[in-house]
């Protein structure tokens, strides 16, 4: 069967690789031949090879005016999944998870996997406020959600989470229902829909940050049960090939720094936003390289793709979120660009990730 009648298959495949992401699900249903091509592992690889892949940023974002506030009766937050496409500057929302009619779980984590999947893990039920082991997987090709296998082990909240960008999501630390910080860690295979326990970390790490680069999963910062809220400055590194935690970095962060804004680019460089600046880890020393714009310095959220950084924050607590793009140049210069953001996408951010589709 010809992929497109009257065209050689290699030309037809070239046509299919040019389909915009938002039309994947429609093209997927056109015919059996198109479905086979688009569903193949080579399809998204060819899009990238020929320059047709596009980066997207996915954010677990509250509706504007809704956040966890110190006000006596703050509005109840309702979180949804926002998609930002840096190349076009367009904002949109993913379809809601069918089994979450009241919005995303509070404090859930999300990770992009394999140029195709978005995985949403854990969090608190927005109605009962009970912690959950739930896993939801969104397929950008079919534009459909499915339920994944629940996390194994104790119910955990505020854990570190990161994807290897291939097929696996790593989870580490957090705390259980009794507020005990955890040393345990897990790996979730999206293709097999299976959880596997990892060896325990050396230390308990509640509210640690997870990042992945160079074949290793990093659990950064966090704190133990006895020092609740007092963040450590060290990190642990899990070597996936050796299947063990291979070393402890004692001086990665300043003591007391919340590690949420540590991110890694595709070359393995680590960055952080802290005290009004963007800094890069140069060997064992943090080198300041760019001052944050004043209107994103409060409760900043940071995500990277390739060598670009998106920073979302405000000038005051619970203020309207502003968005800036930071681009780096070869001569170590940088450029901030303010991103036009529709009002409905200016709410609080609780998690996010990037994918290239």
TrEMBL record:
InterPro entries: Kelch-typ_b-propeller, Kelch_1, KMD1-4. SMART domains: Kelch. Transmembrane segments: none annotated. CDD domains: F-box_AtAFR-like. It comes from the Eukaryota. GO terms for biological process: negative regulation of cytokinin-activated signaling pathway; regulation of phenylpropanoid metabolic process. This is F-box/kelch-repeat protein. The lineage of its organism: Eukaryota, Viridiplantae, Streptophyta, Embryophyta, Tracheophyta.
